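Good day; I would like, with your permission, to put a structural problem before you. What I wish to show you is a protein chain and, alongside it, a tokenised description of its three-dimensional fold. Please examine both parts with care and let me know of anything in them that strikes you as inconsistent. Thank you for your consideration; the sequence and its tokens are set out here:

***
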Amino acid sequence: MAKSQKNIKQKEYARICKVKTESLKSIVDDFFEMSLLESDQIPVELGKRDLTGFAAQFMIDHESVIRQHNLEPVINIPDKSVFIKADSQLLVRIFDNMLNNIFKYAIHSFSMDVLEDGTVVFKNKIVDGSSIDIDRLFDRSYK
């Protein structure tokens, strides 16, 4: 095998190792955060939050990265303010997690609907849904 081909293979193996290491680090970080949340070590400060204003601003703040992923957002927010009782930091984390899942799995577009009862619904189409185990969909470690 030529030396250049060997170097190319070694670089590819190194790249694969880096990607897998980053993926494992992300999983470990997720489990750590989950354990902190479950242990009540993260203080939760519930307060009255304007969900419509938050959701609109969140989407505006993330518009450029949404476009970078070549996704077309369809956003439906009521004209009047909808208030919920929530922790601001946890609300950001929830929206960040939803958007990151959209970046990983969505095809072409996604929608976000803020309902008047304070529910937020994210929807997107995926390439192949046949591999999804519906019974495990809400398991914390299911991917």
